[in-house]
Amino acid sequence: MTHADRPIVFRNRLDAARRLAERLQAYRGQNPLVLAIPRGAVPMAQSLAAALQGELDVVLVRKLGAPLQPEFAIGSVDESGWTYLSPYAASAGAGADYIAAEKRRQLAVIRQRRAQYTPLRPHLDPAGRIVIVVDDGLATGATMVAALHGLRQRHPAKLVCAVPVSSPEALALVRPLADEVLCLQAPEDFQAVGQFYRDFDQVEDDEVIALLKQ
Q1: Count of domains for the chain
Q2: What is the pLDDT of residue 1?
């Protein structure tokens, strides 16, 4: 493996955001709407919005976790209740009753976060705008699928997906759903998003709220 072939290991999320901003300079000054999938991507999106002279907001989606493996996504749900189910949901043991209950749980989290994150204003309207959806990485791609699907229904002028790293499978899943996909790397040996960051501390609600207030 040559040096050029080695995966990038980002110092932290802001380092990843800076590298994304370098590749998205064409949108600078066009007032793009930069939407983060909370919580990890919010500091990244705030940095990106500043670099591109755009506006920051969140797109609220939640993964549907597998039975006994809540971190493993078998699908996702967006704020409207639209649901994506992966082809392997049934083989992961997720029956209809389980999926309905998990969907209710995650929609409750979405409602709680909307009340916390933007209590005094509606979320920004993507219609007719360049919209850049940011996450800190894609493992299954499920939450990004829900985010892009929901935003497409609201008629942006251009829908861009921007991530520092993705599994090859997730990248293939989301690519048809956006007008442009910027992914800095999709290594074949992908195991988890955190392996590509030296500092991958959890982002807490307080930090998200503070960034959105700015």
Answers
A1: 1
A2: 32
